[in-house]
């Protein structure tokens, strides 16, 4: 019974626990698509006490001090992702790391170099890759907390870390990666399989399944794939049924680590999994935490899960992507929002690439899709309550470029990588669950779906209430980044100018 319930919840983008009561709680709190009708409460109830981290997000004195003592032996060469020019590293202990200018300098195997050059088409490491890969691949293989901009190539850092530590001859799991959603787990596996194409290393996804051919883990043989990438609920189940053997796990990765360690994310599950793996591997497992955002609450918790770690952080004021032009648009009502998307933004936007539209609730995905398709604008919509096979199909069609506009809840706010996306529309602004406060981290991740790896992009934030205006203002203050307003929602030329300014027309 427990199995069925957990499966269902993970389907919704959240992860179950063993206690049914806790499960519902968890399900509600998840950023990934669980913000449903409850959001109405958030917009109508009186504001709860704000315990958010915005006021506290300056680095602590200790961190500031450490940032001054970089022990990287040389400055990485300038690379083609200027947005990461300001990442700063704090190395722990005496190990001196030289950041890599080429992939060759990393002592990667011939097979991995071939994967990077031939299969991925990469020519040189991005800044975050140049700085973190020596830390990940050099003994004593210290734990690492790494923050870098959205779209700057963090996946390659941990995928190379995992592929490099696997012995392809041993048919036992040696690397484990945890992700907040099944979509991200599948995407990360696809990257690993391409990058590792010439290594013979195999990878399995530990994600909920609901297909008719699905065989419960208890009836399956133990996992022999060398890399496992999955969501916390399924990983926990595989661990408790002893189907996922952890004694040879050498590297444990958390993608979107801040969410994986957040109270309203997967903190408890993540902590349990780390403890279990550290215990069974005799403490010899390297832990890597990657994300574009680490708020002060999460940062304060990190020492509990990693010790003596190398750290790389970016100041929040420097996190917005340079090449991404953000705008806000005042719309008098909801109908005007739809008109703006349809008759102004799409008028030009459809010519320039792919678009992601973020809404707050599942209901809104359906409402907006039907409003747009009724007028002849083709778009698809995804949210956690859809069947998994439908979710997979919608993602695949968008990745293949068959569909141009994708409406989504925050299910795809984090990690989703599609180079052709150069337009993001916030139909609803991101709000912290159960509050009237903006979710600045989610805002950053959402807009980071455009402008991947230094590409150009534009973001339109639609506001139709005074509260929306306040939310926008708070987001601007948080990142210390002024967002210009499109002067009139009715004027086509103003939108054309905005897109021209973003370099898209
Ligand atoms: N060295 C490189 N050269 C060229 N392209 C690269 C390189 N590294 C990564 N990329 C490409 O950059 C894009 C973004 O990479 P990735 O998804 O890893 O970003 P990310 O840092 O994880 O972003 P997010 O925080 O949004 O998850 C991908 O399409 C990837 O293929
Ligand atoms: Mg990522």
UniProtKB/TrEMBL annotation:
Compositionally biased intervals (Basic and acidic residues): 1-11, 20-32, 53-67
Molecular function as annotated in GO: ATP binding; hydrolase activity; RNA binding; RNA helicase activity
Lineage top rank: taxon: Eukaryota
Transmembrane segments: none
InterPro entries: DEAD/DEAH_box_helicase_dom (IPR011545), Helicase_ATP-bd (IPR014001), Helicase_C-like (IPR001650), P-loop_NTPase (IPR027417), RNA_helicase_DEAD_Q_motif (IPR014014)
Span of domain Helicase ATP-binding: 135-312
DEAD-box RNA helicase Q domain boundaries: 101-130
Helicase C-terminal domain: residues covered: 340-494
EC number annotated for this UniProt entry: 3.6.4.13
Name of the protein in question: RNA helicase
Species this chain originates from: Carex littledalei
């Amino acid at each position: 019974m427990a199995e069925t319930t957990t499966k269902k919840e993970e389907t919704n983008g959240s992860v179950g626990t063993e206690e049914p009561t806790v499960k519902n709680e968890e399900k509600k709190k998840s950023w990934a698509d669980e913000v449903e009708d409850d959001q109405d409460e958030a917009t109508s109830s009186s504001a709860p006490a704000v315990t958010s981290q915005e006021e506290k997000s300056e680095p602590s004195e200790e961190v500031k001090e450490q940032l001054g003592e970089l022990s990287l032996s040389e400055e990485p060469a300038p690379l083609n992702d200027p947005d990461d020019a300001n990442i700063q590293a704090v190395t722990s202990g005496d190990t001196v790391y030289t950041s890599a200018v080429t992939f060759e300098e990393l002592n990667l195997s011939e097979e991995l170099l071939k994967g990077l050059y031939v299969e991925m088409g990469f020519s040189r490491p991005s800044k975050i890759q140049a700085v973190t890969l020596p830390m990940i691949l050099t003994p004593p293989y210290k734990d690492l907390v790494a923050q870098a901009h959205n779209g700057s190539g963090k996946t390659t850092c941990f995928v190379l870390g995992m592929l490099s530590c696997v012995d392809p001859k041993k048919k036992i799991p040696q690397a484990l990666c945890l992700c907040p959603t099944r979509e991200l787990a599948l995407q990360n596996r696809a990257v690993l399989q391409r990058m590792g194409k010439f290594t013979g290393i195999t990878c399995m996804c530990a994600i909920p399944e609901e297909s008719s051919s699905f065989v419960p883990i208890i009836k399956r043989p133990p996992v022999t794939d060398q890399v496992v990438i999955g969501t916390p609920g399924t990983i926990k189940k595989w661990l408790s049924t002893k189907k996922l053997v952890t004694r040879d796990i050498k590297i444990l990765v958390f993608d979107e680590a801040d969410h994986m360690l957040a109270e309203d994310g997967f903190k408890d599950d993540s902590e349990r999994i780390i403890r279990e793996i550290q215990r069974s591997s005799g403490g010899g497992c390297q832990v890597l935490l990657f994300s574009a955002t680490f708020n002060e609450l999460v940062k304060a918790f990190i020492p509990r899960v990693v010790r003596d770690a190398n750290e790389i952080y970016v100041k929040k004021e420097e996190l917005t992507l340079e090449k991404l032009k953000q705008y806000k648009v005042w719309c008098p009502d909801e109908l005007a929002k739809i008109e703006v998307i349809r008759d102004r933004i799409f008028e030009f936007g459809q010519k320039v690439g792919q678009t992601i539209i973020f809404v707050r609730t599942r209901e809104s995905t359906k409402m907006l899709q039907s409003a747009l398709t009724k007028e002849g604008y083709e778009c698809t919509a995804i949210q956690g309550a859809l069947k998994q096979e439908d979710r997979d199909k919608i993602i695949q069609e968008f990745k293949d470029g068959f569909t141009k506009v994708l409406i989504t809840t925050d299910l795809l706010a984090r990690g989703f990588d599609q180079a052709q996306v150069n337009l993001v529309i916030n139909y609803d602004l991101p709000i912290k669950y159960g509050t009237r406060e903006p979710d600045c981290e989610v805002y950053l991740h959402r807009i980071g779906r455009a402008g991947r790896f230094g590409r150009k992009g534009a973001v339109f934030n639609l506001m139709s209430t005074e509260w929306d205006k306040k939310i926008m203002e708070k987001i601007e203050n948080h990142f210390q980044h002024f967002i210009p307003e499109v002067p009139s929602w009715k004027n086509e030329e103003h939108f054309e100018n905005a897109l021209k300014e973003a370099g898209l027309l």
